[in-house]
């Protein structure tokens, strides 16, 4: 087990408005504020979303990617890191010339309108806010 003691730094509360793209807003904010490590909590709804729902087999990184164009409520928890190279979750062909902020979100998402008994879990890959989505970032130093 590895242990790193950290202290709480700044706390940011963001509210994404209807039509705001999640990562196109959050990633530049993290870069601008130079948040090198942190925890991210999200709560709200997306009107369009891409997610990774899991692995298709035990053979390797063969993920199941899904796109939804109906709005869905979600709650998520994630972390912020600055990896040297683009993580595999971003998809094939994504290359970085230098470390970039990587906001990695695990989430539970509703089944969409009229599908109240369906819930999916996975990783947020992209999304457009339905309106009033709350994002809280706890910087760790």
The N- and C-terminal alpha carbons lie at a distance of 20 Å
Number of helices: 1
At the first level of CATH, the class is: Alpha Beta
What is the CATH architecture assignment? 2-Layer Sandwich
Helix content: under 10%
* Beta-strand content: over 45%
Rounded to the nearest angstrom, the radius of gyration is 15 Å
The low-pLDDT segments are none
3D structure, described in words:
There is one protein chain. By secondary structure, this protein is mainly beta. The chain has a single domain, classed as 2-Layer Sandwich (60s Ribosomal Protein L30, Chain: A). The chain has 1 helix and 7 strands. It is globular, with a radius of gyration of 15 Å. The mean pLDDT is 93.
Task: Give a brief description.
The protein is mainly beta. It is built from one helix and seven strands, in the order βαββββββ.
What distinguishing features does this structure have?
9% helix, 141 residues, 7 strands, mainly beta, 1 helix, globular, seven-stranded antiparallel beta sheet, 60s Ribosomal Protein L30, Chain: A, single chain
Note the topology.
Elements: E1 8-16, H1 22-33, E2 38-55, E3 63-68, E4 72-81, E5 102-110, E6 119-129, E7 133-140
Antiparallel strand pairs: 1-7, 2-3, 2-4, 2-6, 2-7, 4-5, 5-6
